[in-house]
């Protein structure tokens, strides 16, 4: 009897250890580095049509962090200039700060008239971990945008730039360390979700984006499938590296 109990306990302990190991492996796959992030973004960009490529753009995932750290600042602003922000409908700016990923979306910077209640420029910060305090990047974002305008030698005043709306919409929240995957998923939604694209296109400046994903444009099953796709991409890259 005691032998059977001991054997059962050992089997239970072994199963528990295996579950912990599998959980750690899963978390490891969820935590993206900038190298994998950039490779996946390149792959994602090949899957969209040319019309979208002409009106959307994205910044390198290290540019914002390096900018606020003062690393290679003049070159970063020069590289951003080459992205032609002011002829794009949407620009995606990954933010990697304090060990956490979030996404800055620059909308309608191709329209420089803040008085246009339909398509004036506005900024959204999408953060899958609200407890990280997304508003703490606000001053850095304002400074970043101001320097972009200066580098481009734009005519808009500082007062105009300060009046560009910066919003922090409610978005799906992470459960572990998958913030990088969430940023990729948010970008994917903008590129592939017609309903979300229509919301961005049609909301007037007097309307806010506080409930951006509450209109049925978020699908938990789609997010899980996307997460698995990123994991598969990582595994394939690891296999190629080993070869």
TrEMBL record:
Q: Which UniProt keywords apply?
A: Hydrolase, Protease, Thiol protease
Q: Which organism is it from?
A: Brachypodium distachyon (Purple false brome)
Q: What is this protein's record name? A: Ubiquitin-like protease family profile domain-containing protein
Q: Does the keyword Nucleotide-binding apply?
A: no
Residue ranges crossing the lipid bilayer per the database entry: none
Which SUPFAM superfamilies does the record associate with it?
A: Cysteine proteinases (SSF54001)
Q: Which gene encodes it?
A: LOC100838227
Output the Pfam families linked to this UniProt entry: Peptidase_C48
The entry sums up its family as follows: Belongs to the peptidase C48 family.
- UniProt keyword Protease, yes or no: yes
User: Superkingdom, according to UniProt?
Assistant: Eukaryota
Q: Which residues form the Ubiquitin-like protease family profile domain?
A: 14-190
Q: Name one GO biological process term.
A: protein desumoylation
| Molecular-function GO term, any one | cysteine-type peptidase activity
């Amino acid at each position: 009897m005691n032998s059977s109990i001991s054997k059962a306990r050992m089997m239970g302990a072994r199963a528990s250890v295996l579950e912990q190991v599998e959980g750690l492996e899963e978390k490891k796959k969820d935590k993206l580095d900038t190298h994998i992030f950039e490779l996946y973004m390149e792959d994602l960009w090949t899957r969209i049509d040319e019309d979208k490529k002409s009106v959307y753009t994205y910044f390198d995932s290290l540019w914002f962090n390096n900018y606020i750290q003062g690393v290679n600042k003049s070159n970063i602003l020069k590289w951003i200039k080459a992205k032609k922000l002011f002829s794009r409908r949407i620009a995606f700016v990954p933010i990697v700060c304090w060990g956490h990923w979030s996404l800055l979306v620059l909308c309608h910077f191709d329209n420089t008239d803040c008085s246009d209640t339909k398509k004036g420029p506005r900024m959204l910060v999408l953060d899958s971990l609200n407890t990280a305090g997304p508003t703490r990047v606000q001053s850095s974002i304002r400074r970043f945008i101001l320097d972009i305008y200066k580098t481009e030698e734009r005519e808009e005043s500082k007062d105009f730039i300060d009046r560009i709306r910066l919003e922090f919409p409610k978005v799906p929240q992470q459960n572990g360390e998958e913030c990088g995957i969430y940023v990729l998923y948010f970008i994917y939604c903008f590129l592939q979700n017609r309903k979300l694209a229509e919301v961005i296109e049609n909301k007037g400046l007097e309307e806010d984006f506080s409930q951006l994903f509450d209109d049925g444009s978020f699908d938990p099953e789609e997010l899980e499938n996307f997460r698995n796709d990123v994991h598969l991409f990582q595994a394939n890259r690891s296999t190629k590296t080993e070869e």
